[in-house]
């Protein structure tokens, strides 16, 4: 059973690596950024199962941010001084109407210092004073762009 589950996840990751770069956003950031985003999708595939995120140290207060979703933060990654595109500090989920959660984005979070950049994008002001954040909507299309902070397609709650 575990072997077939692993094969299925690998097949999905492989397919999404080639299909999603064009589906996520109509805006192109160039072949280098597209390749980097495909790598982010590949390493975050396992987090479609939210339990895997919990097992790997991501946790949340379950606060839903309208047009963003639920943020699961990994405290070991936040503030470690390393901004690694393949180790996002935050995973973003959209609550499903039938229960459960859909992985929609990753977020890179820097608690301070100089304003960083990844993927050729300068970080936005973050959720707390002096912090910086960059969303990458790698699992959910965003008409406002892959790196927009908000996505009108997710977490449309009051």
Automatic annotation (TrEMBL):
<keyword id="KW-0732">Signal</keyword>
<feature type="signal peptide">
    <location>
        <begin position="1"/>
        <end position="26"/>
    </location>
</feature>
<protein>
    <recommendedName>
        <fullName>YpjP-like protein</fullName>
    </recommendedName>
</protein>
């Amino acid at each position: 059973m575990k072997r077939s589950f692993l094969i299925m996840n690998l097949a999905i990751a492989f397919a999404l690596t080639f299909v999603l770069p064009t589906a996520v956003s109509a805006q192109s950031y160039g072949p280098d950024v597209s390749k980097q985003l495909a790598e982010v999708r590949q390493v975050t595939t396992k987090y479609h199962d939210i339990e895997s995120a919990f097992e790997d140290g991501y946790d949340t207060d379950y606060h839903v941010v309208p047009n963003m979703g639920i943020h699961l933060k990994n405290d070991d990654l936040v503030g470690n001084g390393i901004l690694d595109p393949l180790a996002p500090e935050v995973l973003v989920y959209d609550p499903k109407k039938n229960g459960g959660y859909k992985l929609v984005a990753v977020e890179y979070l820097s608690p301070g210092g100089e304003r960083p950049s990844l993927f050729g994008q300068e970080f936005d002001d973050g959720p707390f004073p002096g912090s910086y954040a960059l969303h990458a909507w790698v699992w959910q299309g965003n008409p406002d762009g892959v790196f927009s902070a908000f996505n009108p397609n997710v977490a449309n709650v009051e």
